[in-house]
Design goal:
The structure holds two protein chains of two kinds. Chain A contains nine helices and no strands. Chain A is an all-alpha fold. At the A-B interface, helix 1, helix 3 and helix 4 of A face helix 2 and helix 3 of B.
């Protein structure tokens, strides 16, 4: 299990060019975006980093069919799935820490507006991130890699759009951002239930899937 | 070591039908058949990449799904194409793979890398097909695997490198506890190193026997077309008739010798002859 998580971690940071583009992503976004609300940009950045970090290892499955290599090694299918769910949480933590670091640095350098974050901002991004991952991961474990990646982009864009750019536009987003976000315990319980159900579904889907 | 019992997988347009064979410790089994016969499907089922419809696969005496992790720790695999992370270097890839194996031997890996003239800092995407195959072999042989499973490892390689691969496999098999299961359609490779041959065609096992027994049993019968009648034709597994005469594969050459005496020539077939004639007869 640890070897699987380490593998995903290494894949994310093995290629210098992807590291550079991650660092450059925030300043570039601030430069080109027309959104004035810096908190919304923060939400967007956290979700995007989390999404990218979780999905880079899956991208290799499309490009190099590396899932066949991993599945041929001494690992159980169940462990592959659980490791991805653990890695997705780790990705969120890295994304959050990295975003905080970059926004603090930008603040110190007086680039852009200064940011005032509350704990609710972290809860909201966490909820949205759990939702994205809970839908995306089962598709990765069932659909052919290429198709799964296309579907995932749509899910990411749809949920991010509803949480970040038009947060009060739908009943679900409104409910999640206003009702649940005001109750710490409920946020944790709801997130964990969604995530666990998604993981159980993924284990079943992956165990019964043919790999090509 | 490896036992496949009545393995079935149905894809709709293709069916792997009741495939059975057994590989004992210390032997090399060649798995032959034309393209699309079911070789890769069988290997993918053994490696649990595909879900079987029915049948049993036992490796080291254990069920291959119930004891998947434990079994794969003792298997070295080589596929016909590279499934490595192409953006990584040889060393980075090795560092990803090594922690998965309980018996990984870094010294052995370095030794193979040196022997194969591979640069550990070279990116995998920059390696030629032959180099990737060498890297794949180095990985498969560096964790003291008891069973090496290879899917068309020599296809697309030049004869010099193919011979190198076969020599390496020959060295591996000197350890009597190890076995190799080797799928290929280049049958000449197997004539050099295989102890057993399993022939699959159209999803069904044609035979699974010791190589020497196969080469002893079968015969290519050559003669004049005037000798051929309906009954004689039926005796052949595969038959090729030209204006100058006929050539046919039989699993009972003595019967032809008794019937036609010196008016026919009987030659020992190659594995390729056996494969080609058997496939042709299926298509007729």
């Amino acid at each position: 299990m640890i070897a699987l998580i380490k593998k995903d971690f290494k894949l994310n940071f093995a290629v210098k060019s992807s590291l550079i583009s991650m660092v450059m992503f925030v300043p570039l976004l601030l430069f080109i975006t027309e959104i004035n609300d810096i908190v919304r940009i923060f939400h967007f950045i956290v979700l995007s980093y989390g999404y990218i970090l979780t999905n880079i290892p899956f991208k290799y499955d499309v490009k190099d069919k590396s899932h066949l290599l991993i599945q041929s090694m001494p690992v159980r299918k169940r462990d592959i799935v659980i490791s991805k769910y653990i890695f997705a949480i780790i990705s969120y933590c890295i994304a959050l820490a990295f975003s905080l670091l970059i926004f603090t640095a930008l603040d110190l350098l007086n680039i852009g507006d200064s940011i005032n974050l509350s704990f609710n901002d972290i809860k909201e991004t966490f909820l949205a991130y759990i939702l994205i991952s809970s839908i995306n991961l089962p598709t990765q474990f069932r659909l052919p890699p290429k198709l799964a990646n296309i579907v995932n982009v749509f899910i990411y864009v749809f949920i991010t759009n509803h949480f970040v750019f038009i947060p009060n536009s739908t009943t679900i987003a409104n409910f999640l951002t206003n009702t649940i976000a005001n109750n710490d315990f409920l946020v944790l319980i709801v997130s964990m239930i969604i995530y666990l159900v998604s993981m159980i579904i993924s284990i079943y889907l992956y165990k019964t899937r043919d790999l090509y | 070591m490896l036992e496949v019992i009545n393995l079935t997988k149905n894809f709709g347009n293709f069916k792997l039908d009741n495939v059975s064979f057994k590989l004992e410790p210390g032997y090399i089994m060649g798995f032959i058949g034309p393209n699309g016969a079911g070789k890769s499907t069988t290997i993918k089922l053994i490696m649990n990449l595909l879900k079987k419809d029915s049948g049993e696969i036992r490796i080291f005496g254990k069920d291959h799904i119930k004891h998947e992790k434990e079994i794969k720790d003792r298997i070295g695999f080589v596929y016909d194409e590279s499934f490595f992370y192409e953006d990584l270097s040889i060393n980075q890839m090795k560092n990803i793979i090594a922690p998965f194996y309980s018996r990984w031997d870094n010294k052995k890996f370095d030794q193979y890398i040196k022997e194969f003239n591979l640069d550990p800092h070279q990116k995998i995407k920059k390696l030629s097909k032959g180099m990737k195959m060498k890297f794949s072999l180095a990985l498969a042989l560096s964790h003291n695997a008891d069973l090496i499973i290879m899917d068309e490892p020599t296809s697309g390689l030049d004869p010099v490198f193919r011979r190198e691969v076969l020599d390496i496999l020959y060295d591996v098999i000197q350890d009597e506890g190890k076995s190799i299961f080797f799928s290929t359609h280049i049958t000449t490779d197997l004539e050099k190193i295989a102890d057993y041959i399993t022939f699959i065609n159209n999803g069904k096992i044609v035979f699974s026997k010791p190589k020497d027994e196969i080469l002893e049993t079968y015969g290519i019968v050559k003669g004049d077309n005037s000798l051929l009648d309906t009954d004689t034709r039926k005796e052949f597994i595969g038959l090729r008739v030209t204006k100058v005469g006929f050539e046919g594969l039989t699993d009972n050459p003595q019967k032809f010798r008794r019937k036609f005496g010196d008016s026919i020539i009987i030659e020992k077939p190659t594995l390729e002859d056996i494969m080609v004639y058997s496939v042709r007869s299926e298509r007729l």
